[in-house]
Structure formats: C-alpha cells, structure tokens
Amino acid sequence: MEDLRATTVSEDPVQRRDLILLGRAREGDLSAFNDLVVCYQDMLFALVVRMVPDRDQASDAVQEAFFSAYRNMAGFRGGSVKSWLSRITINAAMDAQRLKKRRPADPYPELDDDTWQPPAPASADPVTTSLTAERHRVLNTVMAQITHDQRTAIVLYDVEGYDYAEIAEMTRVSVGTVKSRIHRGRLALRSLLLDNMELFRG
Amino acid sequence: MDEPSDEPTDGLQPDHAALAVVARHALHDEELIAAFAGGDLEAGPGAERARSLTERCAACRDLSRDVQVLGSLLRAAGTAADVGARMTAPRDFRLTAEDARRLGGPVSAPGLLHRLRASLTGFARPLGASMATLGVVGLLVGSMTLSGVAAPGSLAIDAGATAGAGSELGPVTGAEASQRVVAAGPAATVEGNQEDAGGARSTTLAGDLPFAPLLLAGSLALLLVGLALLLIGLRSRSSGKH
Predict the structure, then answer these.
(1) Rounded to an integer, what distance in angstroms lies between the CA atom of residue A187 and that of residue B37?
(2) What are the residue boundaries of the structural domains of chain A, listed by start?
C-alpha cells in the first residue's frame, strides 16, 4: 500500500496528523478513521448545515460523507485530507439537496440555529452585538429560501472562499453557470431582504 | 444603450418621478450590476456599462450597495472551520465496526481474503450441492458404462437389431463384427460379443470407449469439490449462528 507520509511530506502538523491517521485507517485501523471523524465532524456539519438548512438532513449528509470517505480511502491521492473530506461532504450535501428537490412537500423547518452568527468580539457593545445577531438571523432565514444551487454557490464562494473553477468542478457545471448562480443568488437575497435592507445598510 | 440620469424626472410630481426611476430601472440588467458589485466583471464593455448604470441610476446604485453589504455580511459569518470551532455537531458521526464491515472499507490483504471468503460462503452450499449431485450422477453413468450394464429395453432393441443385421449380412470376420457392434452402441456390444465373437471381446470394446474413465474421473472430482463446498457452507453457517 502506498505510504501517504512518504509521498506527501507536510510541514503543517495538522496535515501531517491527518495523513498519519488516514494511512493507518487505510491499513484497516477503524479507530484511526474515527479520530479523523472527531477532528472534522463539527466543521463539516457547519459547512453542510448552511447548504442544507434542515439539520436532520444535514446530519444525514455528513454521515453519508463519512461513509463515502471510508469506502473511498483508497482513492485518496495525497494533498489535504481536510479538502478531500470537504469535497466529499459537499457532494453529499448536494445529493441531499437533490433528494429534497424530489420531495418538495417536506418544507424546511424553522431555522433557529446560529450557524450564520459570527462570533461577537469581546469589545462589542450590546447594541452592536444585538444588531449583528439580528442581521444574521434574518440572513439565515432568507438563505434557506433561495434555490439550493444558488445557496451552494454562494456558500462555497462568498463564505468558504473557493474560487469559481473549484466550485465548477465540485458542482459539475461550467464556470459561467457558477457565476450566474452567485449573481442571481445575491439578487434573490436582496429581493427577499428588500423590506429589511435598512437593517443592513446602517 | 445610454441611460438618462435621474435628472429627467425634474419637474415631475414626486410620485411620478419615483415611478419614472422604477420604470427605467426595470430595463436595466440587474445581474450585470450584481456581478459588478461583486467585483466579478473584468475591464470591458460590460464593466463600463455597469459603472455607467450605477452612476446614473439611483436604483442600480442601491442595488450595487446592497449586494456589497450582503457580500460582506456573508464573509463575516465565518467559514465552516470557524463555525465548527465554536459549535458541536448534533450527532456523533464515528463509524461502528458494523458500519465498517458493511461499507467494505480499505482493501488490505486480510480484508480481501475475508471478503473473498464471505462471498464464497454465500453460494458455497447451493453450488456444492449441485456439483455433488452431478458428480454422483456422473459416477453412476460412468460405472454403468464401464461395466457394460445398460438399460434392459435398449439392450433388447440393440441386441435384436444387431442380430438381424448379422443374419442379413451373413458370416462376418471378427474385426468386422467388432466394428458393427461398436457402431451399434454399448448394449449391442455385449450381445454381439456373446453371439458372434466370444467373451474376450468385452474388455476390448470397453477400451474403445475412452470417455468412460474420463467421465468417472471428472465426476469423482466434481463430487469431491462439491462435498468440500458443502462443508465450507455448512461450517460458515454454523459459525455465523454463534
């Protein structure tokens, strides 16, 4: 079996740890794989719950992503384990969204999580903190109302910082389509927020 | 298309002026403005047009500003890594041993052997039973062929036919009789030997049937392999119960 540590030498201790764990997992050590799961499950859930606002479905998508990662460990060709897991999870999230699309009778539940809430700086006054919280609560609500293609593109581009080409590859569409989804998604958000835009302009 | 600025609304009633702005803005390409506001337009006619619109049209200006505000708000929400550091997933996603077994997992040498064994035991019993049955049938047929025992009905018919043929053709030499008998089949061989050529011919004719020992050997092999598969299947079944 290919030794990932030998082929991908990393100075980053986190990346080195991940490669060691993945190498052991590929040799059949389930606990090593589960250590990776523990390291990344919170992050991946936070990623998916923004794309799939239904928390139960988001959880299912993350679980499916880890199943898929376990099945396809042999396909890992070096590089960042975190990026590899993220891509698998994004695929699982898109599959969950497609499933949701086929069953539109199931509405998204009320969103009361705080995944869109940025951390409040210690120096922030209560008014600012409250205003920020309200802005993100509203943003959270409208993000769940735009199409899942637009939401995925916006989350990956605006929030996660992937570039157009990476998003195009992950979502298997052209770069032009990605750009169009992002622009239309922003317009849709603005249209949904039109009555509340004063809250954001201030 | 060059858009007039907001100035032409001067002289109109306030409501009419607002309506005129909205009506003109309805003709503007909002996606272009959104792309421009997001910094996604490279220098060129598109960017020039978007700049011109945001300078002249108040609604386009508002749109551009709002898109920028939303973009900064989204970026401020933090990446999944940031959020993951301060929130906990609602479920433990670790895999159980059962999950790992079901998923197959990494292909290590012992794992591959285990998977091969598991897939083999799945069809070992039915395959073993079939092979053993075929082996038994083959052994019976082969041994009957070798010992010269055949079904009585066909024996009588063949014997009659051989005798008839012999009486019509008249006296034949030993070699000719042998050829005719072989052509008539094993059953005729016995009778033909008894009537025309004598008991010594039986061994010779059996030697002329090389498929019989092959059939016997093949059937024996089938029987043994089938029994082995049956044993494997039964053993894995009983170990699976415990």
Answers:
(1) 11
(2) 1-109, 111-202
- Is there a contact between A70 and B74 if contact means CB atoms under 8 Å apart? no
Q: What's the sign of the alpha-carbon dihedral A84, A89, A92, A94? A: negative
Structure tokens at A143: 């993000």
The whole-angstrom separation of Cα B46 and Cα B67 is 18
> Has this prediction a pTM greater than 0.90?
no
Domain of B210, in residue numbers: 123-241
Task: Please report whether residue B92 resides in a domain.
Answer: no
- pLDDT truncated to tens, each residue of chain B (242 aa)? 444 455 455 555 667 777 777 777 777 888 899 888 888 777 788 788 888 888 888 888 989 999 998 888 888 888 888 888 888 889 899 999 989 988 876 555 555 666 666 666 667 788 888 999 999 998 888 888 877 754 454 444 444 444 444 444 444 444 444 444 444 444 444 444 444 444 444 444 445 567 778 888 899 999 999 998 888 877 766 654 44
User: How much is the CA Rg of chain A, to the nearest whole Å?
Assistant: 19
Calculate the CA B25 to chain-centre distance.
Answer: 58
Interface confidence, given as ipTM, is 0.79
- What is the DSSP code string of B161-174? HHHHHHHHH----H
Q: What CATH class has A1-109? A: mainly alpha
Q: If you classify domain A111-202 with CATH, what class do you get? A: mainly alpha
Chain A positions in Cβ-Cβ contact with residue B74 (cut-off 8 Å): 139, 154, 158-159
- What lies within 8 Å, CB to CB, of A36 at 6+ separation is A18, A21, A22, A25, A81, A85
- Give the residue among A134, A151, A158, A183 at the shortest CA–CA distance from A54: A151
Residues 54-93 of chain B whose Cβ lies under 8 A from any Cβ of chain A: 63, 65-67, 69-71, 73-93
